[in-house]
Specification:
With about 190 residues, this protein is of the alpha+beta class. The protein has 5 helices and 11 strands. It is about 25% helix and about 25% strand. A hairpin with a 4-residue loop joins strand 5 and strand 6. The structure holds ligand MTE and molybdenum atom. Molybdenum atom binds next to loops.
């Protein structure tokens, strides 16, 4: 065996366990982007862990069980597209993602029930809106803006947003106030029976 062939072979052999390791470590799921808790009928995780669920604990959340969604879970839900003029740059942008109500239905929430939904963002910003109003607004859990995934550090990775320029009474409010019910960096939804 010449030196070059030997090096190539040993490189391959050396890589094989790494490749196997990488395959074994490839996560079946991506990072959880959204946790839904409260009056849900479907769950895939247990109680809030005050030690390890640091951000949720800091934001005072409590739950016995919750439904956690990763990006793929959210991409699998039917998406809708809106094109509101945003307050940030006063320009129209295309936003897409599942409706909040579609995500809630995936957590087993009856859409004709009387619920108030807490929409909580990574900076602690929270709004409480009735499920009926969220449906009337057609509030999205936006995953994409102008065809690109929203970024953590920008408005994402998820943004609860609706076409505020198309729905009364929001459409009659100044552009700078229209999106007050739209937490960027959305990461948790609390379903409260009302
Ligand atoms: N995560 C998060 N989302 C938010 C806010 C916020 O402080 N944090 N402010 C809200 C309000 S009151 C308005 S008017 C708009 C614009 O506020 P912003 O400039 O803080 O994003 O976003 C809404 N969404
Ligand atoms: Mo605001």
């Amino acid at each position: 065996m010449n030196k070059r062939a030997f090096l190539a072979t040993s490189a391959l052999v050396g890589l094989m366990p790494l490749t196997a390791l990488a395959a074994a470590k490839t996560p079946a799921r991506g990072p959880v982007l959204l946790t839904v808790s409260g009056a849900i009928m479907r769950s895939n995780r247990g109680a809030l862990d005050p030690a390890l669920d640091q951000m949720m604990a800091k934001h005072g959340l409590k739950f016995d069980r919750a439904m956690a969604f990763d990006a793929v879970d959210l991409y699998r839900l039917p998406a809708v597209t809106i094109r509101p003029t945003l307050e940030y740059d006063a320009k129209p942008h295309t936003l897409s993602g599942p409706l909040v109500s579609t995500v809630l239905a995936a957590a087993g929430v009856a859409l004709d029930g009387a619920f108030t939904i807490g929409l909580r963002a990574v900076d602690g910003y929270n709004v409480n809106v009735s499920l009926a109003e969220l449906q009337r607004m057609r509030m999205l859990v936006a995953t994409h803006m102008d065809g690109k995934p929203l970024a953590l550090g920008g408005l994402g990775p998820l943004w609860a947003v609706f076409d505020a320029g198309a729905v009364a009474p929001y459409k009659d409010q100044p552009l700078k106030e229209r999106f007050a019910q739209c937490p960027w960096g959305l990461y948790h939804m609390d379903v409260q029976k009302t």
